[in-house]
Design brief:
By secondary structure, the chain is an all-beta fold. Helix content is about 0%, strand content about 50%.
Length: about 170
């Protein structure tokens, strides 16, 4: 596919310098009311230039144990929250689902964020989730009713980091 610019401009497309991907094939569960790292849903990239940007793409599937679960998810660079709503009195997250009603199905959350890490050191991006409703369990890549047999689906999630030339 060609990218064409209007006549007279000197703009050129930016380059993708590198791509790092972490697919998550296994499952994860938590009942925590505090944010916890989702195991294997993190990616590390070492930018070639401190002026370059990093495009982060997250694809996450989740289920719950019983009706009424609530999931909040957020994206971090190391320990710094980088992609979330601005909320002084509410939970800051890139995704939230309230009162999930079906333990037999999965839902999907995604995030796309262009970060400016301003470093050439290894940088780790990760997803954290928390349950906002005590007494429920959240699952990644499986339903709440899953008994590890052919009747219930298992899925994959992923996080991708792409370094983009500034």
């Amino acid at each position: 596919m060609a990218i064409n610019f209007p006549e007279g401009t000197q703009n050129y497309p930016t380059k993708i310098i590198q791509v790092v991907s972490t697919p998550k094939y296994n499952t994860f569960s938590t009942s925590s009311n505090s944010f916890v790292d989702v195991s294997n849903l993190s990616v590390s990239i070492t930018p070639k230039s401190s002026s370059n940007k990093v495009l982060i793409m997250v694809d996450m599937k989740f289920g719950c144990s019983t009706n009424g679960a609530e999931i909040f998810a957020r994206l971090l660079r190391g320990t710094t929250l980088i992609y979330a709503g601005n909320a002084s009195s509410r939970e800051e997250c890139f995704f939230g689902a309230e009162d999930i009603h079906d333990q037999f199905r999965m839902d999907q959350a995604s995030a796309n964020f262009l970060d400016s890490p301003s470093t050439t050191s290894a940088t780790t991006y990760k997803v954290q989730i928390r349950n906002n409703n005590t007494g429920h369990t959240l699952y990644i890549n499986r339903t709440g009713a899953d008994t590890n047999n052919g009747a219930y689906p298992r899925t994959a999630s992923s996080i991708i980091a792409m370094e983009v030339e500034a």
